[in-house]
Amino acid sequence: GVGIILREGRRLTEMVLELLDFTRIQDGRMTLNMELADIRSEFEDTVFMYGSRLAQDGITLEYLENDDDIPEISCDPKRMRQVFLNILDNAAKHGSGTPIAAEIRYVEDAVVVRIRDFGPGIPEDELPLVKKKFYKGSSKVRGTGIGLAVCDEIVAMHGGELTLENAVGGGTLVTVTLPISQ
Q1: How far apart (Å, rounded) are the C-alpha atoms in residues 61 and 21?
Q2: 3-state helix/strand/coil string of 101-131
Q3: What secondary structure letter does DSSP report for 160?
Q4: Are the C-beta atoms of 75 and 39 separated by less than 8 Å?
Q5: At 11, is the secondary structure helix, strand, or coil?
Q6: 103 and 63 in contact (C-beta within 8 Å)?
Q7: pLDDT tens string for the chain (182 positions)?
């Protein structure tokens, strides 16, 4: 019983924080605390921290390591961690317990983060709508439907782009592209 109460308390706290962020974005009050940051380190820390949490639920989070030399970028590290965590959380919720793959690369003067689940994917007719505020589509998973909308806004405020697509072979692939310089 206590475990359920703790999980539901965390879920409600996350919903309130999402709603507060949504309100700040709507009012134009969301600000970024930009600094030069090691985005690979921020991403890896998030992946490893969340990966251990997922392991408790029997979900494998595989980090696809590479030797790309990724320069520091100007960003709000706290907000970028929020984006990474939200995408990983969505992959865990909608991936039906399948493994999740995560990677960060340096591609043509941009940092590219890819997170993929191997679940059922997103119905094609819903794909263009999933980043809209409060859109939940046919998903039965709990949530407010604003997490991806907030992430999309945060990434856009960094001059980047967030895309979602159905991956070849099944599942959903989320890509965050951040420019090296703005």
Answers
A1: 27
A2: EEEEEEECCEEEEEEEECCCCCCCCCHHHCC
A3: -
A4: yes
A5: helix
A6: yes
A7: 887 788 777 767 776 777 766 776 667 767 888 999 999 999 999 999 999 888 888 999 999 999 889 999 999 999 999 999 999 998 998 888 889 999 999 998 999 999 999 999 888 888 887 877 665 666 656 555 678 888 998 999 999 999 999 998 889 999 999 998 75
54 beta partners: none
Q: What is the dihedral of CA 157, 13, 38, 132, to 10 degrees?
A: -30
Long-range contacts of 6-13 (CB under 8 A, 24+ apart): 11/142
Torsion of CA 165, 138, 94, 12, to 10 degrees: 120
